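Quick log. Single chain, no ligands specified.
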Amino acid sequence: MPHHDKPATGQDTSFLDVLDQTPPPHDTKDSPRPKRFARLRAAWKASWEEGGFLHQRWEDVFQARHASWHEVANWIKAAALFGGLSLIVLMLDTAGDVASATLKGLSAAPATSGGLWGTVNHPIRVFLADQAAHLSIAPAALYAFWQLTGLVGLVGGFFENAGARITWLLFGIGSLAMIWSAAPAGGRAAATGLAALMWALASIFALRGLTLRPIVHNHPPQYQFTPTLHLHATLPAPAGDDYGPDNVHPLQR
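-> predicted structure:
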């Protein structure tokens, strides 16, 4: 009759060790051929007994619900850290794909030359295309970056972010300069003025709540100081010769 060596109670034995220690079943009259996966089933059953490998892992998981981070088993910490890092990498990869698709969508926008938006947008496209010819960057990518900068400044400024508001101001000044430089000479002033009005209207949302007045907070002092001056004067004691009876003289007419 085969004898199975089971791990002692409290001994951390892996499942593969139990599988190696489990001998294969022998042929008998009732079972002329060994059953398939008999060793695997025997090792699986032995590892779930008290002190087995899987039993110990289950106990670690059960105790981790009520234990602090320092008391949790090391393999649970490693699994949690690995899962968290994998999730962060997945989120960053997804955010990169979304940003790339946004930039491609912005760069693929048609260059319209009509209407109010075309009056402002066309000179900027022309200016960026002329500058990109001297740089190692495509005009579409440069135009997409310009649009993305304005979008970030507008949204971030709406949420009262100081850096986004500075970006929005620089975006507006740069846009006006590009329009003035690339617009036709006959309509340069009109195109720049129209762009300034559109930028001012958008600044209502980007610079909401911004004021140039200094904010003065009047708070009562926490500690009240009352100056008090104490003077100590020492008067000499009166002498007998000055105020004694010898100093009294009758009134003479």
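Confidence is low (pLDDT under 50) at residues 1-11.
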